[in-house]
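Why run this: before we spend reagent on co-expression, it is cheaper to look at a predicted model of the complex and decide which construct boundaries make sense. The entries below are exactly what would go into the expression plan.
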Amino acid sequence: MTGVWALLGALAVAGAIGVLLKVREGRISRRAASADLPAPVRDLLAPGVTLVQLSTTFCAPCRHAKVILRDLADRTDGLTHAELDVTNLPDVATKLGVMRTPTTLALTADGTEVLRVGGVPKRDSLIEALRPHLP
Amino acid sequence: MPKDRPVDPRGPRFSAWMTTVILAIVLLTGWWRLLAAQTVLFAMCAFISLKLNPWGHVYRYAIQPRLTPTTEREEAAPLRFAQGVGFIFALIGTLGYATGLTTLGMVATGFALVAALLNAALGLCLGCEMYLVLRRYAPALARPQ
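The model came back. C-alpha cells follow.
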C-alpha cells in the first residue's frame, strides 16, 4: 500500500515541477546591476546590447535558445548574441547567480545588466523588454 | 569514452516512458531486482554508449518506421548525463530496498521516476538544466566526461 502512495506522491511532485518550470520558462527578470562582470563575459560585450547566453554541454534546450536568440540578433540593429559555455567555468555562473541553463543576460556595452531570461526565451516579450535599451 | 552520434529526439522520449513504467512497477511492488536491472541499464548508457539501450532498438525497429521522418537531432551528451543522474538515484534505491531500508529505496526510486516522467511527458531534462547546481554541490558527480 505504501508503494501506491509513493507512486502517487512522485506523480504529484512531477506534475508540480512540470507546471512550475513551464510557468517560469522564458520569464524575464531584472536585478540590480553587479559592478564587476567576470572576464569571460566582459570579453563578449559588443556595442549596443549583447545577449550573453550561458550554456553547458549537457543542456538540450540551449540549442533552441541559441536558434531564437541568433535569429533575433540578426534581425535587430544594435543587438548581438554570444554564447558562453560554462561547463568548465562554474565560478562564472556562481558569480552571476545563474543556477540553470540556458540563462541569457542582456548587457550593455559598459557591462550593465538590463535584464535576464531563465530558460528558452520567448521572442516577442524579449524584444519588447529590450526595445527601450536599443538604438 | 566513445562519443555517440546525435539521435532522433523521439527515441529518448520513448525510452523515458519505458523507464517511467519500470520505476512505477518497482514502487508498487518493491521488486528490487527489477530496479537493479534498471540501474545496470542506466550505467551502460551513461558510461559506455547509448547504443546499448534496448528501448532505443525497440524504437528504431518497431516505432520509428511508422512515424514521419524528422531531421531534428538531439546531442548525445545531455542524454548520457541524464542517464548518469538516473544511475545514481537507481543505485541508491536498489541498495535501500536490498538492505531493508525500504523508505530510502522508495524515496530514491521516486526521485528517479519524477525525472523520467518529466523527460517523457515534457521532454525536460531536470539533471541537465540543474547541471550548474549539481556541479556546485557535488563537483565529483558532475564532472564533465
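Chain A is about 40% helix and 20% strand. The mean pLDDT of chain A is 91. Bring this page to Monday's planning discussion.
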